[in-house]
């Protein structure tokens, strides 16, 4: 394991604990988002994921959706006014009122073929940040892995093996509610760091 990589078994332990109790039992306040076990699995996958820079996400994503905060971040990153960024780079999503899409896709206008990467990586939209572990957080009950992304396939294999190993090693172990809450909070911070 190289510096910066996470130990799959440590991530599996976090995931195992985080999925032992529903969020409602751990976060009784109404202002806390409620996530499903699949959501926590996605969060764990993001910890382990290593982009292999194949470009699949940048060359096949259609549409590439933007939230209002994504458009604002793009404008700030490009050092242009928001209205100019909206006019130059976005269109309204015809299927989702209030949602924006990038104008230029297939490949994404910000994909650099020569460098094999995104020119706006630090300001990439949420839809790009959560790729390739797709789903609607808080409602989806399964993790959808994009099979054309070699990094996602590898991540799921690594996490699955680590989960199986941890489950065998910790059979009969019952963490406290506090340990479960801390594991959930740790994984939730992953979303903020994407």
Word description of this protein:
It is a single chain. The chain has about 190 residues and is mainly α. The chain folds into two domains: about 10-50 and about 130-194, no CATH class; about 55-120, no CATH class. It has nine helices and seven strands. The protein has helices at about 10-20, 25, 35-50, 55-60, 70-80, 80-90, 125-130, 150-170, 175-194; strands at about 65, 90, 100, 110, 115-120, 135, 145. The chain has a three-stranded antiparallel β-sheet with strand order 1-3-2. α1 runs antiparallel to α3, α1 (about 10-20) crosses α8 and α5 crosses α6. It starts with 7 loop residues before the first helix and ends with a helix. The model has no long low-confidence stretch (mean pLDDT about 85).
List its traits:
8% strand, 194 residues, Puta_zinc/iron-chelating_dom, YkgJ family cysteine cluster protein, three-stranded antiparallel beta sheet, single chain, mainly alpha, 2 domains
């Amino acid at each position: 394991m190289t510096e910066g990589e996470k130990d799959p078994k440590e991530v599996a332990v976090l995931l195992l604990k985080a999925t032992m109790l529903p969020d409602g039992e751990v976060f009784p306040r109404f202002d806390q988002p409620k996530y499903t076990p699949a959501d926590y699995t996605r969060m764990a996958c993001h910890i382990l994921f290593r982009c292999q820079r194949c470009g699949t996400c940048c060359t096949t994503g259609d549409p590439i959706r933007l939230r209002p905060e994504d458009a604002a971040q793009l404008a700030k990153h490009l050092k242009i006014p928001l209205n100019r960024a909206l006019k130059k780079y976005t269109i309204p999503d015809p299927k989702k009122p209030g949602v924006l899409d990038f104008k230029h896709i297939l490949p994404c206008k910000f994909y650099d073929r020569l460098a094999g990467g995104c020119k706006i990586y630090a300001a990439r939209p949420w839809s790009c940040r959560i790729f390739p572990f797709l789903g609607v957080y808080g409602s989806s009950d399964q993790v959808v892995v994009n099979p054309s992304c070699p990094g996602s396939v590898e991540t799921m294999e690594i996490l699955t093996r680590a989960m199986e190993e941890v489950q065998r090693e910790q059979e009969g172990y019952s963490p406290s509610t506090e340990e479960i809450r801390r594991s959930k909070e740790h994984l939730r911070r992953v979303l903020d760091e994407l």
